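Wait, mind explaining this?

_____
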Amino acid sequence: MRYKSELRAVHGGRAKYIAGNEREILDFSANINPYPPKLDLSIPEDALTRYPDDEYLVLKEVIARHHGCKPEHITVGNGSVEVIRTLCHTVLDQNRTYFVPDHTFAEYELSARLTGAQKAKTEKESTLSFICNPDNPTGVLLPKQEIISRFSWIRSDQILCIDEAFIDLSDPSQSVSDIRDPRLFVLRSLTKSFAIPGIRFGYGIGDPDLIASMEVMRPPWTVNAFAEKVVLSAFSKYHDLEYSRKMIEEEKTRLMETITTVGWSCSKASANYLLIETDRPSGYITDLFFKNDILVRDCSSFGLSTSIRIAIRTKEENDRFIEVLEKISACLHS
């Protein structure tokens, strides 16, 4: 081919597009907060009739205040994936290397590879390395101190990207977003925590020199005026996420007990989703759930051929999942 040929990364959250309008599918494949704070989602007229401020001065000031830093430490994007692409194209080229752990979010690898960079054998050998914390798909959270310990060996010309997309629904006290180090870049997203994936918003926190270069690489007006308005509303409701975390933990405990009872095992997740080991082909298990109007995440795209991932949803929705899980388990063991 004349052009680069890469396969797009696989993501969850496609129930509506897979099933169409004929079926009502419960989507357990996308890790969205089932108990989100209530936001102002009205559309002001000027959100449609004016260009956004491409410097996003007000937005960056609000984000910076939340994280105890300055606006020049902040970059924004149309979802965290765009921030990942911008970071990779700013830092990497064909003469540099990256490191991505096995069985993790596919966009790290794809974004790095698109720059022409080569994959390093170890994290210590790479120009740019990624850690998802809490991990996706396991939901397991690394303690803050374990992240900090890496800086004893990270060189001055290396960058460690910590993706904290789910940490607000896990344990925010373990975030490293308060650490100022030129070797650290922290990736954040509001769309999962506040259940607004359709607006597409992510941001990054890093060294001002890196951020300045990323802002040049970022296309203009990547965050639209409506998204900016909703995000500003979200930052005023951060305290309400405490209720979300409490409810998610209660429902997660209930789901884990049922999953264990039917003979499957699951990750000790801190986040709002669980990785389930089924000991059977994940595509087969995914199909069984889909026949019962539930979409779960087939984790073969993570390199986990017998695992599925499920989001924690509301009590009523989780009741339905448990009912179908027990039905499937009975069929498998009959």
